[in-house]
Structure formats: structure tokens, C-alpha cells
Predict the 3D structure of the following.
Amino acid sequence: MDDQTTKLLMKKVKKYRKWAESVFINPVYWKVNGKPYFMAGFLKNDKPAGTAYVTIGEDNREEAFEAQQKLALFADLSSSIFQIGEARLKVESAYYINPLNTAIAKEEGKVRQGRDAFAGLWDIQQKFNRLVKDFKHYYEHDVLAREHIIETDLAKVQETANRVNMYQYLTLTTLLSNNDEIRAFADFLESAKTEKQLERHQLDFVKGITENKDVMELSLAKLNMIVDEDLEKMEKLNYNYSAWKNKRIIDSQQKYVRYPK
């Protein structure tokens, strides 16, 4: 978005800013009847306080609220993907690889089960990392380059957000259903006499992911997912369910739209 467009849109929305609030213009737009509509956000203490939907020319309420459905959805889901993704991408590969490279005797049944569950978590983590990195590249080098989002972008962000939830679900269910086994694996790693001992923070990571089961159970409940043994079917079911939930959320946000009224 060029400086002239930014100044024009800012002039429109600044009059709706309240005391101690900052305002920004999202650089991507949605076209309604050939007119590009942008989303402006008002922040207070770095938290969302309201929105406005404006175009370069004359604003139309019906058009603006049509654009709100698309722009708010894309912004909310993209933000969620990045927020969850950034936290998980901070976990270094060595936290998984080094514990998994520790040899285990065949007779260590529970420990081996824990090791296998931990290997499953590493597999999920790798898939998750690829998903988020691919989305980040798409967002930065495709969406921000053209600025104009269309239906295929909405489909992509919903598919990505749904898959993020699937990976979160698989991570939490693995941790909960194999909690004792992963803890046994962590205890083994701590006591194992190996040629190269694991670093303390790597041991703490394996132990730490087994703690706070009540928090994990609450996080799983908050995902509010339709469960099916067939993961492919489950992903499709939750895509449709999420689309319905997202529509309700976006509709509820209309009461925070300051302009147009």
C-alpha cells in the first residue's frame, strides 16, 4: 500500500480513535463491487479495541460489512497461526533429536513405549514446523506482495488453521495418553550412563512436557474438536465445523465496528 493511500485511509479512521488508542491499517484488501476495502484496527494497551472498514472513495455500509466478513476472518486466522506457530518454532530440533538418539535396552518396555511416543511427537512437530513456515512464506511473499486477497486465500487460511488445530490435538492426546511412558523415558534419560550426556535443558524439556496434565486437558477441551478415529475424515469434519464457528465469531465482532455504522 503506497503512502498516499495510507494517509487517505488514516485520515478517515483517525476521527474514530478514542483516548490512549493507536490505529493501524491492514495492508491487504478485499474488493466489493470493484472497490478495495481495507480493515483498520484500534488498539488500547496493545489489545484490540475496535475496527473500521474503509475504501479509497465513497464508503458504503453494506459493502463495508461484506468486506468485514472476509478481512476479519483472514486477519484473525492468520494471527492465530502465527501466534501458535512462533511459540512452537522456538523449540530447537535438538530437544527431540538428542533424546531420541539415546540407546535403550530391549528389556526397557515402558521406557521404549515412552521413547516411541516421544518420536511421534517429533514427527508431529516437524509437520507442524513445515506447515507454519510454508504459510509464513506464502503470507510474506504472496499475500503482502499483491495485497488483494480472494476466495482462494480464505480457503488456504482456513485449511491451515484447521490443520494447526489437528496438530495441536494430536500433540495433546499423545502427551495425555502416554504421559507415564514419556515420564519413564525422561527418568531413563536422566539416569542413563551414556558416552555423551544430554544437556540439562534437553532433559528438562522431556520431563516438562509431561507436567500439568490438567492444563493439557483444558487446552484439549478448548480446541472443541469433532473426534474421529479416521484422521483424514476428522480433518474434513472439523474444517466444516470450524467454518461454522468462525462465521459466528466474525458476526459477533460486528458490534465492535466503529465505521461505517
